[in-house]
Amino acid sequence: MRISPLVKQFIAIGFGFSIGALAQSSLPYQNPSLPTEQRVNDLVSRMTLEEKVSQMQNHAAAIPRLGVPAYDWWSEALHGVARSGYATVFPQAIGMAATWDTDLIHHEAEIISTEARAKYGDAIAHGNHDIYYGLDFWSPNINIFRDPRWGRGQETYGEDPYLTSRLGVAFVESMQGNDPKYFKVIATPKHFAVHSGPESLRHKFNVNVSPYDLEDTYLPAFRATITEAHADSIMCAYNAIDGAPACANTMLLQEHLRKAWNFQGYVTSDCGAVGDISEGHKYATDLTGASVAAVKAGTDTTCGPEYPTLVQAVKDHKISEQEIDTAVKRLFTARFRLGMFDPQESVPYSKIGFSENNTAEHRKAALEAAEKSIVLLKNDTRILPLASETGTIAVIGPNAANLASIEGNYNGVPSAPVVPLKGIEDHFAGKSKVVYSQGSAFTVELPLVVPRTVFHPSAGSSEVGLKGEYFSSGDLSGTPVVTRVDPNLDFDWQSASPVAGLSSTLYSVRWTAMIQAPGAGDYKFGFRDADCYPCTEEDRIRVFVDDRQVVDGGRKGNTSGANSFSVHFEQNQSHAIRIEYAHQGQERGGGIRMEWEPDAAALREQAVAVAKQADVVLAFVGLSPDLEGEEMPVHVEGFSGGDRTDIALPAVQRQLLEALNATGKPLVVVLMNGSALAVDWAKEHAAAILEAWYPGEEGGTAIAETLAGTNNPAGRLPVTFYPSVEDLPAFDEYSMKNRTYRYYKGRVLYPFGYGLSYTSFSYGELKITPTEAKANGPVQVSVTVSNSGNVKGDEVVQLYLTAPGASAVRALKGFKRVSLEPGASKQVDFALDARDLSRVREDGSRAVMPGKYTLSVGGSQPDGSAKVLEGGFSIHGTQVLPK
């Protein structure tokens, strides 16, 4: 029997289908030399209706008789390849936005897509067609962060449509690659559209958005990623717009996406969003009606179990098979353009080997991104950078050594994460003494990771941490592969091996230590596994205190569940603890976090005692992905369902800052969070404030370098920091009135675009050409920026434009990040095209209008400072622009 080269290729990459099924004369869809459209049409024509529908779900079934392998469309890459083992973890998206650096975003996406290809190739070689190992990535999130209460705002590029569009275009272009025939991967801008909370209402709420706000705020970034970056996929949202659910909304999916923007790719639903069409929105009477409405509107694949109903719907003449064909052809066009049906040697990206995942060079890029994301908010006393030999540095706060707060959400697994405490200890080693205390919880109602100060590996030891013994068996049998001291139990091992020499699916660990609480009383402890979806089997956890078993539990435990236990401590009393953890049979699971509910007063008193020993106090406060995020079961003061009801720093952390300040030691506040915080007390009392976001795997290193001056901070806020929510509209009100820097009329703590430096910059020679322009533009703007300080630094040059008319708003229309040595100058050029110059009219139409325009160029929004220059020009004529 003769085996064709294509069949050999299928076998080589692990499709695992019978040779007989494909041992036939070459069919058109198997011929790489034919046009993609012809190949797709041929393949789909050979499928049964049931086979076609089986391809329209996120986990597409294999069709062995046609040589079609199983494929899962769901993969994540918000700031690194997520949920598929070790990967380079960049700062959370809001932190990347704070870099204001399109070149850096482009480089980040290039690395992410390279690692995606490396993981995909390795998975296929091992016959793995599972979720999170595909080449279609549901990123970036380019919704507008219109309200600081939204928990998922951390996943976005901030509140401004222009900044979001420029960063989104850079990300999508680089992810998809530049090969004329093949995609490197496919990017999926989401969630289309008008989607930004509340999380608790997202499955059923409707937004009656004005035509003005729709075109001015909610659609520009989506338009840019489709028309400029040519994203080949887009995700529709949960909510409804103007009465029609987003995944069944013809205004969005047809009038704008397909017709106005000429989108040629495929649309995927958010997970369960098609079901929401009937269950949440009551737009259809049942799941079949919801599925039919979604496909007719243009939703080609669903994340969820809804579309199998389409088979009967076709038979009942509720939808035609031709409409099914249209969706399936879009999906297979994507797969063909990813090279999934061609010989590997003809697909350039298939040459990327697994050795290109999680490399040292990629780690350097993650460090650069973390460095560039940090925003200096206050430094009035010039306490920063710290002196090279500061003496004793106190590192205090719930975010000082919290893994989740460098990871963010939708994250990959960092192989060597650097939390702030470790970064500071490493950087100041041999120069300063570093002392540490946890200080407080994030909120008094929720547990947090047990800090290293509670543990000693053996009785009488001054070393902190637990003795960890790592076994290659699932029952602690055999000789440990590795024995080491772990600072605490805060590990993320999703689809990853804990240490070299262990499988990611079979291992066990035994930790032993003496534990001592900060004060006398009863303390509650518990265990939480790493966030994991989908997970079906349980890890096992057993705990012994003074040789008495107190826990025999498993996955999904926490301090209030079966994995919890309490220990009574007398003053200065220690207890022996042994923790046995076993993981087997799950590729996606793995990881453990030991939490506690400490006494707030005792923890704060301990922190004050540590601060009194120090020459400077570094307070790491803020939020955590355990508090803000996607549809979370969190309902405590200030937080509800992943969103926030109050943007103030939680009370227990404010009390910690006040107590630390009362010691009289200089107080530097480092914020770690995914959304704006009302830090009015810190603004008034702290010596300095840094905003570090959720900074990724090298976050601790970047923070330490910034505190020491090795890195000169130059990040700029991509969101407005408000003093409270009192002057903001209701969270569920989607009108942009009195929201974001463009429309807010009240006092702000720190404005959009704000950020300080360790050096100073000056501006001169603003040139605008022509000063009398035509409606079709362009208008050229140039300015000279100089580093007038004593150290090298980056400046973010920002251009804001105000169109004529009483209702016109000031809006960002250009930005460039430039690096300058002391005394150096650079000319920065901008070209404003017709879309930059246009404004949206009340009816939603966009046009360049005649009149006198005002622009400002500088390192911030115009605020009357000398480093912001203003000028003007006039436009003659009118030009109406397409949607």
UniProtKB/TrEMBL annotation:
GO molecular function, one term: alpha-L-arabinofuranosidase activity
Entry keyword Transmembrane: no
Domain PA14: 461-612
Annotated keywords: Hydrolase, Signal
Tree of life domain: Bacteria
Keyword match Hydrolase: yes
Record InterPro entries: BXL (IPR044993), Fn3-like (IPR026891), GH (IPR017853), Glyco_hydro_3_C (IPR002772), Glyco_hydro_3_C_sf (IPR036881), Glyco_hydro_3_N (IPR001764), Glyco_hydro_3_N_sf (IPR036962), Ig-like_fold (IPR013783)
Single biological process term from Gene Ontology: arabinan catabolic process
Descriptive protein name: Beta-glucosidase
Organism the protein comes from: Acidisarcina polymorpha
